[in-house]
Specification:
The protein is of the alpha/beta class. The chain contains ten helices and 14 strands. Strands 1, 4, 5, 8, 9, 10, 11, 12, 13 and 14 form a ten-stranded mixed β-sheet that branches. The longest helix has 16 residues.
Length: 336
């Protein structure tokens, strides 16, 4: 099965050794972005993957393209143009000190990227799966409108469409995101998360307002059923994360269809690098659906891959099926 995604690739600059921004004299560099993380993760599992994106026409853009090729992601539709690369800076938390992120992505080459209307059908033909996120939708109105058109074209061509809602308050307000992302969902088969999705009551208030993120599944399930029915979504996948500290969390995965919901056992993880772990969950679920596994196995693998990514530096994990299962099942000091 052939997978293609559309999104921005950023340079991540991280303070070393848990230093604060005020202390740091240097930064460790990585490349990442929600859509790229998913493409590389699926490539590690043997899926044919491709990206639609834009990077600067300079050495940094060249390095990104080389990096994608290194991980067997097709770069035919990664264009290069004048402009700058989007950046984000991270300060790794420790003990009671939380992680911090600073974004510097305005006016990036990607944010000025607009394909002609007839290009997207040509690009999507020959692929089976199209993946998007709410991050790209929130960057500006032109990208939002392009994304809406791309999803409709994908459905017309018969592609399976997945969407990670991925709300970012730094990009747009919650109510705008809820309205715009809900418009897209009528053409989506798999959605990650259930906010921001519009589910208004008779008085126009959203039924989910005030719902605790760690609510029991019995409380969440009626809303999921309504989302399935209203938007004709085949799958809804999400994770509940209990935070003990910035270095130890508990994860539990959930996957629902119109008539069934399954959940994993909770799993405790020690954290080397939390960034990109949600994308790793997406990778696991997408791969499981591609393999036509049953719901329980799909969501379990999603949590396994998410757990594995917590122990990998950088934004993405490029690992085989054997690596992921061996990591979960092994209690040995060294695998020899």
């Amino acid at each position: 099965m052939s997978f293609i995604t559309f999104g921005e690739i950023l340079m991540r600059l991280s303070t070393p050794n848990h230093q604060t921004f005020n202390q740091a004299q240097s930064f460790d560099t990585y490349y990442g972005g929600a859509e790229m993380n998913v493409a590389i993760g699926l490539s590690g599992l043997g899926v044919d993957t491709a990206m639609i994106s834009a990077v600067p026409n300079n050495d940094l853009g060249n390095q990104i393209i080389q990096n994608l090729k290194r991980y067997n992601v097709d770069t035919k539709h990664v264009s290069q143009a004048e402009g700058r690369l989007g950046l984000y800076f991270t300060e790794s938390g420790y003990a009671q000190r939380a992680h911090r992120l600073i974004y510097d992505r305005q006016m990036s080459t990607f944010s000025q990227f607009y394909h002609r209307d007839d290009d997207i059908e040509v690009i999507l033909k020959g692929h089976d799966w199209f993946h998007i996120t709410g991050i790209t939708a929130g960057l500006n109105n032109e990208l939002l409108q392009f994304l809406k058109k791309a999803v409709k074209v994908a459905k017309k061509l018969g592609l399976f469409v997945s969407c990670d809602l991925n709300f970012r308050a730094a990009l747009w307000d919650f109510e705008t995101a809820r309205k715009e992302m809900s418009d897209i969902l009528y053409d989506v088969d798999l959605v990650f998360g259930y906010e921001p999705i519009a589910l208004p009551d008779n008085e126009g208030h959203d039924q989910k307002d005030g719902l605790d993120r760690m609510a029991d599944i019995e409380e969440i399930q009626p809303y999921l059923e309504q989302i399935h029915d209203k938007y004709n979504i085949k799958y809804i996948a999400f994770v509940q994360r209990k935070i003990f500290s910035h270095k130890r969390n508990r994860l539990q995965g959930f996957l629902s269809t119109q008539n069934q919901i399954v959940k994993t056992d909770p799993i405790d993880v020690d954290i080397l690098d939390r960034l990109g772990t949600g994308d790793a969950f997406s990778v696991g679920v997408i791969y499981g659906i591609m393999q036509k596994w049953n719901l329980a196995k799909i969501v379990e693998f999603g949590i396994y891959n998410m757990s594995y990514k917590h122990n990998i530096f950088g934004d993405f994990s490029y690992a085989s099926l054997e690596n992921i299962y061996a990591s979960i099942q092994s209690n040995r000091d060294i695998n020899r």
